[in-house]
Amino acid sequence: MIPESKKNAVDHALLAAFGTNTLEDIRELTAGLSTALVFRIVVGGKPYLLRIITRTDAMADPTLEYNCMKAAAEAGIAPKVWYTNVDDRIAIIDFIDAKPFPMEEAKTKLPALLSQLHALPPFPFRINYLDKIGEFIEKFRDDELMPDELTTGLFDFYTQVKNIYPRNPEDQVGCHNDLKPENTLFDGERVWLVDWEAAFLNDRYLDLAIMANFLVKNEDDEKIYLKTYFGKEATEYQLARFFLMRQILHLFYFVVFTIVGKTPDKPIDPDMPVPGFREFHDLIWTGKLSLANMDNRLQYALVHREQLQHHLGLRRLDDSLQIVAGC
Predict the structure, then answer these.
(1) Is the pLDDT of residue 251 over 90?
(2) How much is the average pLDDT of 60-71?
(3) How confident is the model at residue 266 (pLDDT cuts 50, 70, 90)?
(4) Does domain 4-94 have CATH number 3.10.450.50?
(5) CATH annotation of 103-326
(6) Is 90 helix (H, G, I), strand (E, B) or coil?
(7) What region, left, alpha or beta, does residue 53 occupy, with left being phi > 0 and alpha being psi -120 to 50 degrees?
(8) What are the boundaries of each domain within the chain?
(9) Alpha-carbon distance 55 to 35, whole Å?
(10) 224: burial class by Cβ within 10 Å (0-12, 13-18, 19+)?
(11) Distance between CA atoms of 194 and 49, rounded to whole angstroms?
């Protein structure tokens, strides 16, 4: 089950962490989209999580990942870290036995946890998120994934918001950047954040926007969500910035999941029927739908395209652009 090339390194990790390399049980965990190999192991009667990074591209930085994970673990945000080795790209942490996470409980626990995460010393800088979206848009265009008439307005919005969206230092914080349900584990009492592969210094509103896809269903939810995070009522400026980041995230997910969901043998149908935005995210939240499925990825891309297209026609978008540009 463990690759032959990693067996010696795993034995060394187990001996360093627990004084034994005897595993009483091991099983691979396959949820999520990460390329890392993840195993639930049992040593001395206790379960742990063994994670082996397999990526070798520029974004796979185990030093950054492990440092962010350790900082979060020390703050009680991530599970306890028992072992890491940058050269071997191996980590062992406590295993969290996840329980169903009631939505009403998540609506207060998760923004409070985000507030705690963002108060940590800043993580290292890796990329500029807004600039990176531009690179994905260029790839989308180069690959001619959809007719221009279906995307021009969306990409014009990107240019417009990129020119006015602030990059002020006080909102650049240590972000997780990948807060999907399988990375927010509820043990019945506490919430733990796992899989720190995408963590780096980023705009606080991105983490807030990612979680809001699942938790914020109306304006009342939005106000409670942001009040829990900020510790007081959100200002007009904070509401506007949050709204704009949510649209940026819709665009990002549309572009990226179209790219990763495209298969050579199947053309993209931009008019394929898709569930509503709320329905789709509720299915992901409850584990009834996985984005490991290629058709689901394309549906997810179109769900976000429709949501952004709808919001581009709202007065709130123009108001938010004016408020943020004015500040």
Answers:
(1) yes
(2) 93
(3) confident
(4) no
(5) 3.90.1200.10
(6) strand
(7) beta
(8) 4-94, 103-326
(9) 7
(10) middle
(11) 10
